[in-house]
Amino acid sequence: MKMTLAALALSLAAPAALAQQMTQTTPLERGGRIGSPETFTGTVFVAPVFGPEMNDVSAGEVTFMPGARSAWHTHPVGQYLVVTAGTGWYQEEGREKQVMRTGDVVFAPAGVNHWHGATDGTSVTHYAIQAVRDGSAVTWGELVSDEDYGG
Q1: 91-147 pLDDT, tens per residue?
Q2: Would you call 13 helix, strand, or coil by DSSP?
Q3: Spatial contact of 14 and 32, defined as CB atoms under 8 Å apart
Q4: What is the rounded CA–CA span in Å between residue 107 and residue 116?
Q5: Which pTM does this prediction carry?
Q6: Is Signal there in the keyword field (predicted)?
Q7: Is the distance from CB of 42 to CB of 143 less than 8 angstroms?
Q8: Domain ranges of the chain
Q9: pLDDT tens, residue by residue, 67-90
Q10: CA atoms within 13 A on the CB side of 36
């Protein structure tokens, strides 16, 4: 009986001993870069939060300085924006521009052409969370014109 209990205890403990441990990274360790002028207008800083190792889902922390914005783009699975600081704008093609503020969560469904960024007078920071399909998480389009941005 003691041998059976000992064997059971070892068999239950073994998977726990082989499990991965939690990790922590700092913003400095994750790095970041200034957004490409091919996909952003103005000053934008993009820092990874986590890569697609979690079921092909990735996230980045994106900070737009006043007047900065993404180009028009779509996502094959959709995208969540979790606004963590400031006030910004987003727009779905064919619709009016909308305001997003600290604490808001914006969802862009798969294939919906849209842009997002800061207002003309305030910066905004958000987490952008999206999944990969067929090796891509985003399809970039044209830069947002000053007319479209201001309109």
Answers
A1: 999 999 999 999 999 999 999 999 999 999 999 999 999 999 998 999 999 999 999
A2: helix
A3: no
A4: 11
A5: 0.83
A6: yes
A7: no
A8: 34-150
A9: 999 999 999 999 999 999 999 999
A10: 5
Intra-chain end-to-end CA distance of the chain, in Å: 78
Give the three-state DSSP class for 134.
coil
Dihedral angle of Cα 21, 130, 132, 95, to the nearest 10 degrees: 180
- Gap between the Cα atoms of 10 and 8, Å rounded: 5
Residue 65 burial by CB count (10 A; 0-12/13-18/19+): exposed, middle or buried? middle
Pick the closest to residue 69 from 115, 105, 36, 24 (CA basis): 115
Query: 3-state DSSP call for residue 95?
Result: coil
> What is the fold, at CATH topology level, of the domain defined by 34-150?
Jelly Rolls (2.60.120)
How many beta carbons lie within 10 A of that of residue 117, not counting itself?
28
Nearest one of 131, 137, 125, 34 to 82, comparing CA atoms: 125
- Which amino acid is residue 57, in one-letter code? V
Task: Return the structure tokens found at 103.
Answer: 């604490």
